[in-house]
Amino acid sequence: MQAPPASDTIRVWDLPTRLFHWSLVACIAAACVSAHRDGEAALRLHFLSGYAVLALVGFRLLWGFAGPRYARFAQFVRGPVATLRYAAGLLHARRGSAYPGYPGHNPLGAVSVLALLALCAVQAGSGLFANDEIASEGPLAHFVSAAAVARSGAIHSWGEIAIYALVALHVVAIAFYRLAKGEDLLRAMITGTKPAGPGAPDARAPEPVEDGAPVRLRAALLLGLAVALVGYVVNLG
Known about the structure:
The protein is mainly α. It is built from eight helices and two strands.
């Protein structure tokens, strides 16, 4: 399918947000695959992937306050009433009407973003304290009691299943919006653009986000801060 002409599109997702998204996908995939492989290389990849996930989550939390408009939590996170109202009307909305109300994340998308960030933080964070009693131990496991280590291991095991479930739900949602609503969420997260049109529920036209060198420099600094914090915590052990 051909992309809409440039004049009919609007920049919604800045490059740092898109790179975060696909980097998180890659790190989660690497962590899940390496968790079921034997050998020192697989174990090292699993730990490094977990550390990278923590750094990415930290960056996204900072970016949710310091990023461009559609990356900010204040722009897309809505209350339970608005979210339930959106969900109730979703199946009855005409094809192509899902996007015009929300250039960025819609209310259900906001829930998905927050759930994924929380789950990734818990999953990677629990790995820091887990011990499989065979070949691996989290770098902070010796700081807590044996009961806490066991609890962390259980959380880490169940968290993997929860991640699979949330990823599957995410894929289903992408397919639903593409096939039933005519909104290509996948393309938007690759190109950063969406079809132009009336943007917000108050019928104001959406405005393209800033996505130039200052934004990317700010993102690089925040990512560096997140990486440094994770590195400091990991090396406490």
